[in-house]
C-alpha cells in the first residue's frame, strides 16, 4: 500500500490518496463438505480461495467559502480469484453447472470476488452559518450523494446486486448545550436491492430491499 496526505492553501484544501495491491491466499469461502456423501449436502466454510485485489482510494475536502464546504470520496478495487481456484459448491456431484453458464468443475479463476463493488463514490456539501439575531445559535444544511456499482452475489458471477445511487440530506441547529437535526435518508425514495443471499446451488436466491425514504429528528444534549 502506498499513500499520501496533502493540505493546500493554508488548510482550505485536503486531498488524500492511496494505491493498494493485495495478494490474498487461503481466503475463507463456502465449499462443499467433502466428508458428507449426500448429494448437494450443506456447504461449510473452508480456506480454499486465492484472490488478488488492486485499486485506489481518494478523499478530499474544500472550504470553498467561509460558509460552504465540499467533500468527496472515490474508491476503485478490482478483486479477482486467481486462476485455478475451485468453488466446491458448484463443482460437485451431481453437477449443477454445464460448462456454459458456469464451469462444471467449479473453476472460478478470473471471476470477480463476491460482494465487492468495483467502484464507489460520494460527493456532498454543507452550508453552515449563525442564525440572524442575538440567538447565539448556529445552523447547517447538508446534502450528499453516494453511488455504488453492481456487485456479484456469488463466486461464479451469475447473481448480481444492481448499482445504486442514493441521496441523503439533513439540516440542524446547535446551541451551547444541544444540537437538533432533521434528516432524511434516501431522499428520492429509490427502490433498490441492498443485499442478495444465494444458498446452495439450485436451492434459493433471496433478495433484500434497502431502506426506503426515511425521515428522523435527532436531539443531542451536552451536560
Can you tell me about this structure?
The chain has 223 residues and is mostly beta strands. Helix content is 0%, strand content 57%. The chain has no helices and 13 strands. The strands form three sheets. It has a nine-stranded antiparallel β-sheet, with no helix packed on it. A two-stranded antiparallel ribbon has the order 7-8. Strands 11-12 form a two-stranded antiparallel ribbon. The model has no long low-confidence stretch (mean pLDDT 90).
SSE class: mainly beta
- Helix-strand topology string: EEEEEEEEEEEEE
Give me the side-by-side strand order of the main sheet. Answer: 1-2-3-4-5-6-9-10-13
Low-confidence stretches: none
Main sheet record: 9 strands, antiparallel
Alpha-carbon distance between the termini? 43 Å
- In total, the number of strands is 13
Task: Describe the secondary structure blueprint for this structure.
Blueprint: E1 2-8, E2 13-32, E3 43-63, E4 68-81, E5 119-130, E6 138-148, E7 151-152, E8 160-161, E9 164-174, E10 178-185, E11 193-198, E12 205-209, E13 214-221
Antiparallel strand pairs: 1-2, 2-3, 3-4, 4-5, 5-6, 6-9, 7-8, 9-10, 10-13, 11-12
Q: Characteristics of this structure?
A:
223 residues, mainly beta, nine-stranded antiparallel beta sheet, two-stranded antiparallel sheet, 13 strands, 0% helix, 57% strand, elongated
Give a brief rundown of this model:
Helices cover 0% and strands 57% of the residues.
Amino acid at each position: 500500500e502506498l499513500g499520501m496526505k496533502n493540505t493546500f492553501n493554508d488548510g482550505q484544501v485536503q486531498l488524500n490518496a492511496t494505491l493498494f495491491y493485495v495478494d490474498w491466499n487461503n481466503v475463507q469461502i463456502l465449499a462443499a463438505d467433502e466428508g458428507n456423501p449426500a448429494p448437494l449436502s450443506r456447504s461449510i466454510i473452508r480456506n480454499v480461495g486465492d484472490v488478488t485485489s488492486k485499486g485506489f482510494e481518494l478523499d478530499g475536502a474544500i472550504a470553498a467559502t467561509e460558509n460552504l464546504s465540499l467533500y468527496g470520496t472515490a474508491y476503485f478495487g478490482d478483486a479477482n480469484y486467481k486462476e485455478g481456484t475451485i468453488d466446491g459448491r458448484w463443482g460437485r456431484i451431481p453437477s449443477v453447472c454445464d460448462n456454459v453458464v458456469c464451469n462444471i468443475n467449479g473453476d472460478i479463476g478470473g471471476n470477480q470476488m463476491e460482494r465487492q463493488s468495483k467502484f464507489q463514490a460520494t460527493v456532498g456539501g454543507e452550508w453552515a452559518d449563525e442564525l440572524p439575531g442575538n440567538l447565539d445559535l448556529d445552523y447547517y444544511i447538508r446534502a450528499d450523494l453516494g453511488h455504488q456499482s453492481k456487485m456479484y452475489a456469488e463466486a461464479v458471477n451469475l447473481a448480481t446486486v444492481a448499482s445504486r445511487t442514493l441521496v441523503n440530506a439533513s439540516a440542524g441547529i446547535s446551541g451551547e448545550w444541544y444540537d437538533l437535526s432533521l434528516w432524511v435518508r434516501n431522499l428520492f425514495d429509490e427502490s433498490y436491492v441492498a443485499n442478495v443471499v444465494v444458498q446452495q446451488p439450485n436451492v434459493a436466491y433471496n433478495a433484500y430491499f434497502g431502506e426506503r425514504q426515511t425521515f428522523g429528528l435527532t436531539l443531542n444534549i451536552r451536560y
